[in-house]
Amino acid sequence: MANYNKIQTLVLMFALLISFTMANFGFLGGKASCEKVFGVRSGDNCTGIAQMFKLSTVTFDSNNPNLKCDALFVGQWLCVAA
Ligand SMILES: *[C@@H]1O[C@H](CO)[C@@H](O)[C@H](O)[C@H]1NC(C)=O
Q1: What is the mean pLDDT of the chain?
Q2: Which of 67, 65, 66, 63 is nearest to 79 (CA)?
Q3: Which is the closest atom of ligand 1 to the Cα of 47?
Q4: PANTHER family given for it (predicted)?
Q5: Per residue in 18-43, is it b (16+ CB within 10 Å) or e — as a string?
Q6: How far, in Å, is the centroid of ligand 1 from the Cα of 13?
Q7: Nearest partner of 42 among 77, 10, 73, 14, judged by Cα
Q8: Is 31 within 8 Å of 66 (Cβ atoms)?
Q9: Nearest alpha carbon, ligand 1 atom 6
């Protein structure tokens, strides 16, 4: 029974890690209410994508909090309709 506490600690740490990771990727936050996503393609930029979906920069920014427009990467998912 000496291992029981060790296992319990490991399970707790694992659960914390998972919830931390999910929070970071937005699974627990605003992304859940996103109705339409757009995958960034090569050459895309924030201005171009906002224009493509007829979004104001304010709407675009509020749909995508914490987005780094100077560090977009191909395959990144952006919320274009909340
Ligand atoms: C962003 O993309 C749009 C549409 O593709 C393009 O017209 C514009 O020049 C681009 N802006 C920059 C800063 O690359």
Answers
A1: 85
A2: 63
A3: 1
A4: AM15, PEPTIDOGLYCAN-BINDING LYSIN DOMAIN
A5: eeeeeeeebeeeebeebeeeeebeee
A6: 44
A7: 73
A8: no
A9: 48
Higher pLDDT, residue 22 or 24: 22
Integer angstrom CA distances of residue 46 from 10, 19, 54, 81: 41, 29, 12, 14
Residue with the nearest Cα to atom 2 of ligand 1? Answer: 48
Average pLDDT for residues 30-35, to the nearest whole number? 68
Domains delineated in the chain? 2-81 (3.10.350.10)
Question: In the predicted model, is pLDDT for residue 56 greater than 70?
Answer: yes
